[in-house]
Amino acid sequence: MPSKAEARWTSDGQSMVNALNKLGYKTDIQYAQYEVSTQLSQLENLLVKGVKGLIIAPIDGTTMTDLLRQAKEKGITVISYDRLIRNSKDFDYYATFDNYKTGVLQGESIVSALKLNEGTGPFNFEIFAGSTDDNNAHVVYAGVMSVLQPYIDSGKLVIRSGQVKLDQVATLNWDGALAQSRMDNILSAFYGKAHLDAVLAMNDQLAVGVVSSLRGVGYGSGGTPMPIVTGQDAEIPSVKAIMRGDQHSTVFKDTRALAEAAAVMIDSALQGKDVQVNDTTSYDNGSMVVPTQLLSPVSVEAKDVQKVLVDSGYYSKDRLQ
Ligand code: BGC
Asked: What is the pLDDT of the chain when averaged over all its residues?
């Protein structure tokens, strides 16, 4: 797993260990704290240890080509998990949520909150995207833009900073503190007098950073409403922010289901059975089109918290208080 910075990865990890243990496997789970070199040496150690299968959520999807060649030579089954391994033919499957759909849900959340499809606007808008070394940031961005680009083009969404291309709005390692300081800079340079109406934050870490920056200059109090802020992952601080009204929405990706899917896929592969995939065209990693199992993300606003997050058993009610 890439890091423990987002609670989702520890939750993925725990569910995966449980699912694999149940299927009779011994597991060894490693977190790399967003250090590419750490992740590569973890991988190297596991190859030496003689593992039969690897499930990898890469930090930088382009860095594993040599190690995966070695894994292939050893006959190890490899699944790329949540994030796509790039520039390698030497792995087997990809299990992820539909990242394009995640971006579409984020974009649609802004459209419906601002009622853009009823002709309202113009509104001031800024974008905070994920890390460009993570393929998901590119795919989610494409999904977001499929919904929002027409409103940007027609002038209904106005990006006062002018920062709109992915490399201008990206955030290394999806780091909330970096998002916070970028928001600080944008607010002081472009929003001295103007009100910011909406922020596309690509995940909850970024949303938390953005919201604290906004609070710092008085948004959310004294007649200055918070902008519409999106997110992803349904992390507890963000779910609480949604219930408070500081964040408008998040995208829930049930990590239990993804972990379970990856465990079942690797078990089938190791047993020589058919491996379930539902997408064989979308994910080209530069070296091959990767057979993929795609799960569906779900948009969550305040009204959905009970049904989607509590009734499903993902969080107990008291963890959200
Ligand atoms: C995952 C997101 C996560 C982000 C930062 C992405 O690859 O799909 O769920 O928020 O990485 O860890």
From this structure: 97
